[in-house]
Amino acid sequence: MTTTQPTPDQRSATRERPSARRTPTYAVGTRRHLDADEIAATGLRDRWYPILPSRMLEPGAMVPVRRLEVDWVLFRDAQGRVRMLEDRCPHRSAPLSVGQHLGDRIACAYHGVQVDGEGTVVSVPGMPGCALEGRRATISLEVVEAADTIFAFLPLTAESVPTPFVLPDRLSDPEVSWFGNFAEWAGPWRFYMDNVLDPMHGAFLHRNSHSMFGGDTSARFRIRETDRGFFFEKTDQRGVNFDWVEFVRGSMDYVDLEIPYGPGAGPGGVFGIVGMSTPIDRSTSAIFHWRTRRVSGWERETWRFLYRTTLEAKHWEVLEQDRLVLEALAGDADREEHLYQHDLGVSRIRRIYRADAVAQAEQLAAANA
């Protein structure tokens, strides 16, 4: 049997044919392969995350933010809709955030390239009609504005499809009044979740606070599974201190908990908290809380007045206690521990997030196989 070897020209043509080349798949915005450890450190993808309070993005302004170790720029278009682009001009990667806001687009300061809210290049003033015009060359994220907060879906790959956006129960209930709270902490995002899934720290770290001074300093805990996550709760005390927390996996991951209020806190039910943590990078976190209370009618206005004038400062004091401890922890503090029964919630959330990180790393690897 006779075989014919391809000529050098044929071999070259085969190598250069576009269908013979593959574009590597990276986590969106990273431009590098991520393994499970890096995903765990910088944040899980394919989730909705709170990005910034709405009040921090004024009309006509551009706000650069770093989330999941990627630089982004936020702006409102001419209709007031929030847009979120990777903070890189597709021409020479100059930051779009130092350019000019043109209503429905941004003009890069470096060479004037204009990119709209969908990430499409609409004008290249230096070379009109070039191939870059009309190309969707900048990453644009799906954004929703709700609960006085800007949320975005952070995809794993360019093929990821955003899940339906659904707010936590307390924030979508018209009978619940809430106040948003935002802070940046110098600590890994996972430390926040560990902290909230450890209710026992309330009886020690927050012992002298206005709302967590009561109850025993010893307890037994259990995990109670739900169809959307799990409760971690004390078995022998309820409604006295920080006695339970629910971890919820919806369109976004969040924690839900309640702290009992004394008579001095005014009318209404217990004090509820919805909490989320968004990675800024592997060593900094954006922390979001919504402080809630079920109130209606005149009680609603009384509660809101009382919160602003008296209670808000007290809640900030409690939050500062958490921040100071978590920022003082070593970066590998969760690697050198001796856990006990109170830490079942911490162990559970770590297993969940580790499994997610491994699965996402495998998804990236399979896409490049």
UniProtKB/TrEMBL annotation:
Residues 48-152 form the Rieske domain. It comes from Gordonia lacunae. InterPro entries: Cholesterol_7-desaturase, Rieske_2Fe-2S, Rieske_2Fe-2S_sf, VanA_C_cat. GO terms for molecular function: 2 iron, 2 sulfur cluster binding; dioxygenase activity; metal ion binding; monooxygenase activity; oxidoreductase activity, acting on paired donors, with incorporation or reduction of molecular oxygen. This is 3-phenylpropionate dioxygenase. SUPFAM superfamilies: Bet v1-like, ISP domain. Keywords: 2Fe-2S, Dioxygenase, Iron, Iron-sulfur, Metal-binding, Oxidoreductase. It comes from the Bacteria.
